[in-house]
């Protein structure tokens, strides 16, 4: 439901919005909407089922740094994909759910929108892996940080450090 992430376009206009808000909105969208693909280890389908994060051990500083870099790399692409889909759908139209790991939702999209969604999902996967994380580990950190204020603070601090 990329539509529910429209407030992120608003944030581009106001650079003073806190990093915590960006992280929270991105993470909420990525986990709840399945925007982050789990494409590891399959050749038969471009999209796999979501790997549910389980209680995982503490995350290393290297993983937090990699996660923050991935978030910063993915978010502009998500915004671009959203804007392109919105342009195709037209003003006032509801943006369809784009869930990278659910083939059914991708197949229901018009071809032009499907191409944008597949491109976005491929880019997100590549960015995560380039930042030395697996899709599973990225999803674990995303889910865990939503309920762990200490982890949120660590990620926020790393995001601020990378943006300075």
Summarize the structure.
With 164 residues, the chain is mainly alpha-helical. 63% of the residues lie in helices and 0% in strands. It is elongated and about 40 Å long.
Describe this structure in words.
The protein is mostly helical and 164 residues long. The chain contains 7 helices and no strands. It has a domain at 64-162. The protein has helices spanning 7-13, 19-33, 61-89, 103-107, 111-130, 135-147, 149-163. α3 runs antiparallel to α5 (111-130) and α6 crosses α7 (149-163). The radius of gyration is 15 Å and the shape is elongated.
Secondary-structure blueprint:
Elements: H1 7-13, H2 19-33, H3 61-89, H4 103-107, H5 111-130, H6 135-147, H7 149-163
Helix pairs in contact: 2-6, 2-7, 3-5, 3-7, 6-7
DSSP helix fraction: 55-70%
| Class per helix and strand makeup | mainly alpha
* Number of helices in the DSSP assignment: 7
Question: What overall form do the CA principal axes indicate?
Answer: elongated
Keywords for this structure?
164 residues; mainly alpha; 7 helices; 0% strand; disordered N terminus
């Amino acid at each position: 439901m990329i539509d529910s992430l429209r407030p992120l376009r608003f944030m581009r206009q106001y650079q003073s919005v806190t990093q915590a808000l960006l992280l929270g909105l991105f993470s909420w969208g990525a986990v709840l909407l399945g925007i982050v693909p789990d494409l590891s280890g399959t050749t038969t389908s471009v999209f796999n089922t979501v790997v549910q994060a389980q209680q995982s051990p503490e995350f290393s500083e290297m993983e937090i740094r990699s996660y923050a870099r991935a978030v910063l790399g993915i978010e502009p692409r998500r915004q671009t994909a959203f804007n392109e889909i919105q342009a195709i759908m037209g003003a006032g139209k509801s943006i369809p759910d784009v869930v990278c790991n659910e083939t059914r939702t991708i197949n229901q999209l018009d071809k032009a929108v499907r191409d944008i969604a597949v491109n976005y999902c491929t880019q997100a996967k590549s960015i995560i892996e380039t930042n030395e994380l697996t899709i599973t580990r990225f999803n674990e950190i995303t889910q865990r940080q939503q309920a762990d204020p200490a982890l949120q603070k660590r990620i926020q601090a790393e995001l601020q450090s990378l943006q300075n």
